[in-house]
Specification:
Helix content: 10-25%
Largest sheet: 8 strands, mixed
CATH class: Mainly Beta
Shape: globular
Distance between the termini: 44 Å
CATH architecture: Sandwich
Strand content: over 45%
Number of helices: 4
Strand order of the largest sheet: 6-5-10-2-1-13-16-15
Radius of gyration: 21 Å
CATH topology: Immunoglobulin-like
CATH superfamily: tricorn interacting facor f3 domain
Number of strands: 19
Length: about 260
């Protein structure tokens, strides 16, 4: 009977726990750069600024990767205008891969925080059977369960690719010639509703890169994500509530709210 009372008391506490654990936020700016190297490697960088309107982000911010073949080059957190290296974990678990960054200090309501992440991706560029002789990729940059004020995406092509050799969808907003002679396709979107997805595909002649994934692994790149959809699917989600309730009932240990940026 004593244990039943304890369980009933814990269940009665769920409502206030939900209120305490909830977080609201918006994405102030999201800038994403995909740079396709002539080696066939793909360099991915995220510059992400979130603004917390209620609750506290204290434990981690996670950005998902498309496969296990990635290496972290740089993980930074901007605090008071200073870029500081942030502790992170490389997560490789069966079909889930991510970089989990741990805030140096908690992000409280009313505060904004920026993160910069750079990784190099292997086996990201695939043979494009839809356009014989081409290679390419499909990419969906970060989507969130909150409003995104600004989303900007650059895809930088290997040296030598000409504008008339590019196949892409949707139409880019700008084609930018860079100082080193390469071309960058550019898209921008503003004031996006929660869970908005910008689905982008790019293809070009395979002679401009030295390596890529061949055969059935690279089929239909512009129309099938082939698992790469998980790269851009960055979802800022709140799931600590269930975990917190479970921890309260089992261990009576408090854990602060956590925000996950994952795909």
């Amino acid at each position: 009977m004593r244990y039943l009372c304890l369980i009933a008391l814990s269940l009665l506490m769920i409502a206030p726990i939900v209120t305490l654990a909830q977080i609201s936020y918006e994405v102030e700016d999201e800038a994403v750069i995909l740079e396709i190297d002539e080696s066939g490697d793909v360099f991915l960088s995220y510059n992400l600024t979130i603004h917390v309107t209620s609750g506290t982000v204290a434990r981690y911010v996670t950005i998902g990767m498309p496969n296990s073949k990635f290496d972290v080059l740089k993980a930074l957190e901007m605090i008071n205008g200073e870029a500081r290296e942030v502790d992170y974990d490389k997560v490789v678990e069966e079909s889930y891969y991510a970089v989990k960054m741990h805030p140096i200090t908690p992000i409280n309501a009313g505060e904004s925080r920026s993160y910069h992440l750079e990784v190099v991706l292997k086996d990201f560029l695939h043979e494009d059977s839809t356009n014989p002789g081409n290679v390419g990729l499909k990419f969906i940059p970060s989507w969130f369960d909150a409003r995104v004020r600004a989303l900007r995406l650059w895809i930088i092509l290997p040296p030598g690719v000409n504008s008339n050799e590019i196949k892409n969808q949707p139409d880019y907003d700008n084609l930018i010639p860079l100082e080193d002679g390469r071309l960058a396709l550019y898209w921008e979107r503003y004031d996006l509703p929660p869970n908005y997805k910008l689905d982008v595909g790019v293809s070009f002649p395979k002679g401009y890169v030295r390596s890529y994934v061949k055969g059935s692994e690279g089929e239909d790149l512009l129309y099938t994500a082939i698992g790469l959809i998980f790269l851009g699917a960055v979802v800022l989600s709140i799931f600590l509530i269930v975990r917190y309730v479970k921890a309260l009932i089992e261990k009576s240990i408090y854990k602060p709210p956590e925000v996950s940026v994952e795909s």
